[in-house]
Amino acid sequence: MSHVARYWRRLDDGRVRCELCPRRCELAEGQRGVCFVRANEAGRLVSTTYGRSSGFCIDPIEKKPLNHFLPGTAVLSFGTAGCNLLCRFCQNWDMSKAREMDILCEEAAPAAIARAAAELGCHAVAYTYNDPVIFLEYAVDTALACRERGLRSVAVTAGYLEAAPRAELFAHMDAANIDLKSFDEDFYRKLTGARLGPVLETIEYVATETDTWLELTTLVIPGENDSQAELEALSAWIAERLGPDVPLHFSAFHPDFRMMEHPPTPPETLRRARQIARAAGLRHVYLGNVRDAEGDTTYCPACGAALIERDWYQLRSWHLDERGRCTRCGTPLAGVFEPRPGAWGPRALRVDLARFAE
Q1: Are strands 16-18 and 213-220 parallel, antiparallel or unpaired?
Q2: Which residue from 341, 347, 305 is spatially nearest to 324, judged by alpha carbons?
Q3: If you compute the radius of gyration of the chain from its CA atoms, what whole number of angstroms results?
Q4: What pTM, to 2 d.p., does this model score?
Q5: Pick the CATH number of 52-356 from 3.40.50.2000, 3.40.980.10, 3.30.870.10, 3.20.20.70
Q6: What is the CB neighbour count within 10 angstroms for residue 191?
Q7: Phi, psi dihedrals of residue 252, rounded to the nearest 5°
Q8: pLDDT tens-digit map of 283-308
Q9: How is the chain split into domains, by residue range?
């Protein structure tokens, strides 16, 4: 169903201009934006995916990835279709590039999502798979319904949006993982069809102007964003502008979508990236899409003790006290922790939202 969108303006020539993201698409009657899901209908900008999702799944929170936000707990994840970036390496292209909405989507009102998450024992709902930016109205309404039930909200996003919608979205998010896809403007232009600047603005805004817990992810693509110079620049910017406690995840690329000719990321490349980031002063640097005990483990920034040991999405040991402090030296660990870790583990569970409708 269509839902009147926010952040748009009617132009003198009858078109409407979407002001959600830096693309500022100007649309004639019947046209859709680059994201494909925001459209001009009868002179109004509408969101065509409000209340419809590409599916629901209970995941471990570590899969978002978030390692310092309610570790071990379950999160109900969903997305819609479409995306406002054009990443040639998209790892979720079947949803983010989808056009057959009636085939992909199941209906679910915000209240039903919150009810399902609560009754299934989740601690949070994650807006993910494509990007909550393009379904902002749906994500915000769902976050409000979740808050009424004591549930948290998590945004997994590329962070490509304008200042006013940025403020609204993150006012309702308890945690976010933002993709910092590269630290190079040419990479963004050629491989994502977007610009780096607005992403950096979003990241810095979330880190310094909100209470949203923030973690970052960089998908490391051989020959594209894995140079020593770029990794050093990226890490230095995070340390200087955000501080040393923002967790950074380096994830392995696998050939997909329109970059099938690229080789997968060697594990040693990720380990080198981690070393560079830690040398820049970042205290919590993780490796994703590979099995690496050191790159999965959370360490105390003061005494170096292993505080949370992981095997993929499975917690193996926990050495935090009830207030989130190192049990060896008492140093607080940056993040959002409950007195005891969750025990969801690596399971993924598909959920039929129809049975939770009011």
Answers
A1: unpaired
A2: 341
A3: 20
A4: 0.95
A5: 3.20.20.70
A6: 21
A7: -80, 135
A8: 999 999 999 999 999 999 999 999 99
A9: 3-47, 52-356
